[in-house]
Each structure stands twice: as structure tokens, then as C-alpha cells.
């Protein structure tokens, strides 16, 4: 009886101890590549809080008051608005982290939170809204954990990916999925993002700016957006594009605008009928600039550009938005129609310099400008051009709804609106200011 009792007691002790032993020493089968990747990268993932002060409506901001019931007014109390996002530290020694531009846009106070519980202030080192990429500098911090930027050139549809972020404030949430597709493009109210990675790894508000990893734990993308129409449709910026954008920002001069070297017009129903197209769409090449990338690639007047890097072009604004999301050194595929036949061409966009913008602006808008005493002043006017209402010496205060403080800003506005059939300028003459419209 004593021997039976001994075996029963031993069995009971082992049954109670076994779960604790398993928890203390997980089997190798449970330490999957996903677990290994998360353990390696999670310490470098940051949760970002971006706050700004909101004063109220334009009327309230003007008077410094807010309206209350029964006609009473009271001093306006500033309100703090906060947004949540994620990021990844890519240089621990310098405290540099990547995130989305929309995560920190408008924030006047930014703080980052690490997995180990530490909390630090941060500031914007550089931001490129056209690419939805920003670089944060974390300061007042000792050496931080980080991961190197990976390589997104060999991503395969169907391969396993891992997202880590801060969805709805749940810190360091891990989700997994696969690469659903490559080279996706999405439109937003401010432009277009191209060459995106599509994934079904769950991405929710708060994941923006966080890392997308492959099964080896390498950083292959920066999570940026979801398609609200359905579940399992998320998008990430390829890390190779993020590297090019970050490199340009860290050099201190930002990214130089790019172009193909063509002038285009919309394909409306009348143009589509003249070209024997089934429906309007794309842009018609009216002119190819000599020695430009398009000229070297064989694009000629009369071609209709339908797609750039799988992004469908509906009109000239689409074309401009796509150019704004390309980076120097990027190889671009152009799909076009020529006399009813489809062609695929490859080219590499070139910097659209201020000198080229100035020359094209003088030819298309019909005036030139110079800087004097911190002002942008009309230097010459083509009296037969679309801006013949200008007078030499006029001060250009704004254009396209944006303020103009120097020539660089004027040329940037021209690049953005050069394909449009009209553009609006804000002019000062003899102390009076007025709006004037250029009609091409």
C-alpha cells in the first residue's frame, strides 16, 4: 500500500509541476520564426503620441471667445488633441526613427514609448508628405535599440509577413499574414501613393508608421494605410523607397522633384473620339522635351500614357501626383497607346531643376520672376502670353492657394500646376492685392 501511495503522490507532484516547467522552458517547436522575429524587433518598435493645441473655429480663433447657450461668451480654453501611431528605430546611436508623415503632421509635442516602458520626447528631423514618410529624432535618450533597414527588392506574393504596432492604443500588438500583392497604388485627398505592398496582416488605426517584417525579421516595409471597404486589405511603403527618401532628407535638402520631360493634356471624350479610343482616360503627350528621360525612352507626341508603374492615370493631375511619389534612381514602367497598339517602356525619371522649371514657366505661363529684398517680383512678361495682365515689378504673393515667399516656392507651385489649363496667382501692385487667373 505504501508503494502505491508513493507512486500516486509522485504522479500528482509531476502533474502540477509540468505546466510550470513548460512555461519556464518552451519547447523549440513553439519558438517559431515569427516568435524569433518579434523578439528581435519589438524592442525597437515605438508607440508615438503626437499632440497639438486646438483653439477652435476661425471665428473663435479671431475673437479668442467661444459661444455658449443663451448668448453668453467666455474665454476660449485651448483644447489638446492627440493622435496615436507607431514607428521603428533605425539608428539607435543617433536616436533616429521612421514613421508616417500623417502620424505626426501638425503635432507640436511628440513623445515615443518603448517596449521596456521608457518614454522620451522627439522632434521631426525631416518629413515628405508626398511619400507619407517622416524621420523622428529621439532626444534626451541613451543608446536605443534599433534594427537595420532591410531590402524590399525580392518580396514575393504569398510570403509570410509580420506587423507590429499600436492599434487603438494596444501597445506592441503583433499580427501576421502574407504579402497579398505588389506594386499597388492608392489615392487620397492630397495625392497618390504608388508601388505599395498589399498585405492581409491586420493593420488598424495606430499601426500607421510601424514595421512590416518578413519571416527572417528583416524590415521590408512601413505600414501606412488600410482600405476601409473591407478587412484584410492593408498597405505598406517598401523599405527601399523609404531608404531613398530618408537619405535625401538626411542630406538636408529634401527630395528634388522629378519629371519625365513631357507636356500632356487630358483625354476628354472629344479627344478620345479623335484618337479612336473606347473611352476617355490617360494623358495625351503634346510635347517631348529634348534629351529628357521620355525623349531617350522613345516617347513621342501623340502617345497616350495609360499607366505608370501599374497606377492607372485618369487625367493630368493623376500624372502629376504619381511623379510626386517617385524617387531618384527608381526604374519606372510606362504603359502607353500609340496608333491603337500598346507599348511598355522603361525609363528613369530625372531631377526637374529650378532652371528647367523657370524656362518652362516662362514659355507656358508667359512670365519670368526674380527675388529682391525677400520678395518674388515679376521680371518680364510676354504680352502675347496667358499672363499678359502682369506688369514688370508686380509682387507675387501666392499661387494655387499657397503662399509664395521665394523663387523656389514659385517654381514648386509651377511644377504642380504646369499641366493645368488654368492657375491662380495672388498679386500685389501699388500696395493693392488681388487674384488673377492664368488661362492656357
Keywords for this structure?
single chain; 440 residues; alpha+beta; Thrombin, subunit H; Pdz3 Domain; 4 domains; six-stranded antiparallel beta barrel; six-stranded antiparallel β-barrel; 28 strands; 40% strand; globular
Question: Could you outline the blueprint of secondary structure elements for this entry?
Answer:
Elements: H1 2-24, H2 33-41, E1 45-54, H3 58-63, E2 65-67, E3 73-75, E4 79-91, E5 96-99, H4 101-104, E6 109-113, E7 119-128, E8 133-138, E9 160-165, E10 173-188, E11 191-199, E12 211-214, E13 219-226, E14 234-238, H5 239-250, E15 258-259, E16 262-266, H6 269-274, E17 283-288, H7 293-297, E18 304-308, E19 311-312, H8 316-324, E20 332-338, E21 341-347, E22 350-351, H9 354-364, E23 367-372, E24 375-381, E25 395-399, E26 402-403, H10 407-417, E27 422-429, E28 432-439
Antiparallel strand pairs: 1-4, 1-6, 2-3, 4-5, 5-8, 6-7, 7-8, 9-10, 9-12, 10-11, 11-14, 12-13, 13-14, 15-22, 16-17, 17-18, 18-19, 18-20, 20-21, 23-24, 25-26, 25-27, 27-28
CATH architecture of the largest domain: Roll
Oligomeric state of this protein = single chain
CATH superfamily placement of the largest domain: PDZ domain
Q: Please tell me the overall pLDDT.
A: 84
Could you estimate the helical fraction of the residues in percent? Answer: 10-25%
Strand content: 35-45%
State the total count of DSSP E strands.
28
**Whole-Å distance between the termini?**
106 Å
Main sheet: strand order: 1-4-5-8-7-6
Note the overall shape: globular
At the first level of CATH, what is the class of the largest domain? Answer: Mainly Beta
**Sheet bearing the most strands, described?**
6 strands, antiparallel, barrel
Look up the CATH topology of the largest domain. Answer: Pdz3 Domain
Instruction: Work out the radius of gyration.
Output: 28 Å
